[in-house]
Amino acid sequence: MPVTDITTDPEALTMTVTAEFAAPVERVWNAFTTPRQLERFWGPPGWPSTFREFDFTVGGRAQYFMTSPRGEKSSGSWEFLSIDEPRGFEVLDSFVDDEGKPLDGFPAMRMSFTFEETSTGSRMVNTSYFDSADALEQVVAMGAVEGTRMAMDQLDAVLQDLREYAEGKGTRVELIDDTHVRITRLVNGPRELVWRAHHDPDLVRQWMLGPDGWEMTECVMSTTVGESYRTSWAPVGDTEGEPFGFEGEVLLVDEPRRAVTTERMQGQPIETINDLNLYEEDGATLVTVLIEYPDLETRDMILATGMADGMEASFARLEHEVLAGR
C-alpha cells in the first residue's frame, strides 16, 4: 500500500497525498511521465485512464479520459507549468469535455508532484491547490480522497518488472472494499492470443474448465456491446456435482485491452460486473479481473465456493494447453 497519508487543509486550500515506493526516484518519475504507464494507475480500479495526448513540455498539454465499467467517461486535462526532471513537475489540472474544453461548474486546480530519495526507495508528495474552500469541498465530495488512495495503490504492479511482480505466484485475490475484488494472474503469452482465448469459443472450451472432472457443455461468446453470452459446465464420469452455468451481457469492449460484462448464475438473480483487463510486457500478459458484487454477503459467499482455486486450474490449463507453442 504505497499511500501513507492524505490530508485536506481547508485553511491552506490544499489536498496533499504522500506515498512511499520501494523503487528509485528515476523509476517513479518514469511511471508518472510515460502515458502507457500512467494509464495503469491514473484512475481508481474500474476507471482506467486513456491518454490521447501527452506533450510533456512546459506549456504542453496532456488529455485523458477515464472509463467506467458501464462506459461512462470522465475527462481531464493537464497543462504543464514546470518540469524539473526527475525531482518534480507542476500542472494545471482541469475537468474537461470531450473536446478538451473546461467544464462549467467544476474547479481547476494547480497540482504539483515532487519526488525524493528515501532510505528504502523514494517518496512522492502530490499537492493540489484550490481557489476556494468550496472547490476543495466539491472535489472531496466527488470521492477524490478514496479514489486517489485506490489509484496510487495500483503503482506497485507498475514499478516492478511484470514477471518479478507476478510470475509463479498463481491466481491472487485482493479484497479492495466490501463489494470489489481484484483477481490477477500472469500468463506466459501475448495479449492478442490471451484475448482470443477469452472470447473464441473453440479456444475457451480448451481451458475454461475449472478443476479436473468437468466439461463445458455450452459456450456462446460475444464481443459486441449489448449482446449476451452463456457458458455451462457439467461433471464427467464419477465427478460429484450438479451442472451449472453463467450468463450475462456485454457492457464494454476495448479489444484487446478490456472487456466488461455482467454475470449471473443461470436461474439466479444475483448479478456481478466483471471487468477484464489485459496488459502485456516482455511476452507475458497480466490478466486482471475486477469483480463488483452487490453487497458484502454476496462477495464472501461466492469467494467461499473455491472460485479462485477453479480459476487457477483454468489459467494453468490456458498456459499449458492453449498458449504453449503458439
Fold and architecture overview:
By secondary structure, the chain is an alpha+beta fold. It has two domains: 153 residues, Alpha-D-Glucose-1,6-Bisphosphate, Chain A, domain 4; 161 residues, START domain (Alpha-D-Glucose-1,6-Bisphosphate, Chain A, domain 4, 2-Layer Sandwich). 25% of the residues lie in helices and 41% in strands. A hairpin with a 4-residue loop joins strand 1 and strand 2. The longest helix is centred in the last third of the chain and has 17 residues. The radius of gyration is 22 Å and the shape is elongated. The protein starts with a strand and ends with a helix. The model has no long low-confidence stretch (mean pLDDT 93).
Q: Which structural category fits the helices and strands?
A: alpha+beta
Q: Note the main sheet.
A: 8 strands, antiparallel
Distance between the termini: 37 Å
Taken from the alpha-carbon principal axes, the silhouette is: elongated
* CATH fold label of the largest domain: Alpha-D-Glucose-1,6-Bisphosphate, Chain A, domain 4
The helix content is 25-40%
CATH class (first level) name of the largest domain: Alpha Beta
Strand order of the largest sheet: 1-2-8-7-6-5-4-3
β-strand amount: 35-45%
Number of strands: 16
Please indicate the count of domains.
2
Any low-confidence stretches, pLDDT <50, length ≥5? none
Q: Give me the CATH superfamily of the largest domain.
A: START domain
- What is the helix/strand order? EEHHEEEEEEHHHHEEHHEEEEEEHH
Query: What is the residue-averaged pLDDT?
Result: 93
Number of helices: 10
CATH architecture of the largest domain: 2-Layer Sandwich
Computed Rg: 22 Å
Family: Belongs to the AHA1 family.
Pfam family, one: AHSA1
InterPro entries: ASHA1/2-like_C, START-like_dom_sf
